[in-house]
Amino acid sequence: MEPTVDPLDTEPADLRGAALTALRGWAARRDRLAEDRADLMAAAWWSGTRTVAELARAGDVSRDTVYGDLRARGIEPTDKTAQPSDVLPPYAPIPPQALFSLARQAWTLVRPAQLTDRPGWLQSAAWNTSIALARIAVLLEQPSGADLAANAEDLVGRLGMALNEAQKAWAELEDREELALWSAARIQEAMDEGKAVVGAADLTLIEPGTGSPFAVQIGRSASGPAGWTYLRTEHPQLDTRITAADHLAIQTALHTLGRVLNSLLPPDEALPDDPAVSEPSPTGATVQR
Predict the structure, then answer these.
(1) What is the pLDDT of residues 168-226, one digit of tens each?
(2) Does the first or last residue of the chain, that is N or C, have fewer Cβ atoms within 10 Å of its Cβ?
(3) Is 136 found in the same domain as 38?
């Protein structure tokens, strides 16, 4: 198998080099157009579109091209005894080289949008996602190796950055009331499913430089608007005003903490008769059931 190439290892630092790299990436995509089209044809076929004429119209190609693409992917469109449309294709592992090719195409597509001092949140999310795909390809391709942990670490970091950027983009589209309703609905949905939720968390922050600890309480307001995140602290320099992006990030973190703590709880039938609120965990989080 041809070894994968990390986009970050080949990315030119200057504008001219980056532009040429993007152009070469377009040429690579052009060379793969027929192969990519065949993959898309097969995906449409397996999703339930079994009419050759409809596939031809969607792909803006001839019927003969559709027949050729499907047969290249092991599908015989004239077979009247073929599996019904609700049957998915057989399991096959993700081919690392194909996934890396997809990552490279995505990277080439979004790279020009990064050639600015302040790319948009969604552009940055797409950029980090394209690199995350490349990290997954490397992890799938190499069963062992010294750099696997570094790739896994960067994968988590890239997905985290993409999540943060997506939250900031979302925050610009909704007002406080809508985002508070989303939080409240998410909590209620979890509780309806019998899951515990984090009602509040008492945190200890360590000041940089001095190493002095100070307390911060995070929770959800009962009013103004209900479900909105609040911060409480006696630290004079911590700004407790919460932006929409802050709200989404904190609520996502609380949801993640709740999911982890749920995995540590016993099954419902093994719980005490009156488990209204559990004892605070070592992190200070109060888990409500």
Answers:
(1) 999 999 999 999 999 999 999 999 998 889 989 999 999 988 999 999 999 988 777 88
(2) N
(3) yes
Q: Given 135, 169, 203, which residue is the final one in a domain?
A: 169
What pLDDT sits at residue 269? 42
DSSP class of 237: T
Ramachandran sector of residue 209 (left: φ over 0; alpha: ψ -120 to 50; beta: rest): left
Write down the pLDDT at residue 83: 62
Give me the number of domains the chain comprises.
2
Quick one: pLDDT at residue 278? Answer: 38
Q: In terms of domains, do 220 and 145 share one?
A: no
Residues 161, 193, single domain; the answer is: no
Query: Is 192 found in the same domain as 140?
Result: no
Residues 6 or more apart whose CB falls under 8 angstroms from that of 200 comprise 217, 218, 219, 220, 285, 286
- The DSSP code sequence of 62-105 is -HHHHHHHHHHTT--TT-TTSPPTTSPPPP-PPPHHHHHHHHHH
Provide the domain limits for residue 27.
7-169
Cα–Cα dist 90/87, whole Å: 9
If you compute the radius of gyration of the chain from its CA atoms, what whole number of angstroms results? 25
